[in-house]
Amino acid sequence: MSFARRVVQQPAAKLGIVLTALVLLVAVLGPFVVPAWTGYGSNSFAGKPFQTGVFGTDNLGRDVLSRFLAGGWRLLLYSALATVVGVGIGALLGMLAAFRRGWLDAVIMRGGDVLLAIPQLVFALLAVTVLGPQGWVLVMVIGITHAPRVARVIRSSTAGVVAEDYVLASQMYAVPQWKILTRDVVPNIMGPLMVEVGLRLTYSIGAVASLSFLGLGMQPPTPDWGLMINENRIALSLQPWGVILPVLAIAVLTVGTNLIADAVAGASAGRVRSTAKKGA
């Protein structure tokens, strides 16, 4: 049975895919259907501030549903890009540290320790202050803070692979190192790598939304779920939909990606046990 099929067959994965797909559908198609569904643009004036109704208006009298439909794609895009950056850099550094060892291993791991000692929020605040609240800054800050954690996991997984006989044989025949990493190492650490992708995506979603809520991410009048929560929290008891809709969407997306990550971890562990039984 293929690894992907083993993942999909788990109940947690099925529920996670459904929840994630639901939020993805809203976030991706939302900007295209805003005027047709609501009759307002994401920044159009729709009535008095915090006016009640189907979903009502926000603090500036803009339609809550319009801003909700238009505000999800940035969260998803920045979270995905931050995950790619963090997992890509971390996986590369982790494989190099395990493969080369020696001084390079020490430099990479100690550098990661220094970065882990800096709180993510402080690092983000410093970067935004210097470079400004831009999307690429958000992506790089979150990605860089993910990299040391990914590097530790991938280093541990790679260390077990590079000790195998087929890797030693490739080294003996002077196979280029990049070929050994791509042909022998990467396929055998794909399970832990996919688990890290799922986990980092979940953390990226929460980090992007949190930074936008704190004013370090998207800036007004940009429609954004994290920013919507910050803008409308002052009238939560009067007009709660401006907070409830984005909170619910972020929660569903986080739960969905968590379930998929758990399913990938379970499938990866099952493959390891199956390989161990065959070897015995």
Automatic annotation (TrEMBL):
Alphabetical list of CDD domains matching this protein: TM_PBP2
Transmembrane segments: 12-34, 75-99, 111-128, 197-218, 238-261
GO CC, any one term: plasma membrane
Pfam families: BPD_transp_1
Main subcellular location: membrane
Compartments in which it is found: Cell membrane
Record keywords: Cell membrane, Membrane, Transmembrane, Transmembrane helix, Transport
Residues covered by the ABC transmembrane type-1 domain: 72-265
GO biological process, one term: transmembrane transport
Membrane protein topology class: Multi-pass membrane protein
UniProt family annotation: Belongs to the binding-protein-dependent transport system permease family.
Protein name as catalogued: Putative ABC transporter permease protein
Organism from which the protein derives: Kocuria rhizophila (strain ATCC 9341 / DSM 348 / NBRC 103217 / DC2201)
Native organism taxonomy: Bacteria, Bacillati, Actinomycetota, Actinomycetes, Micrococcales
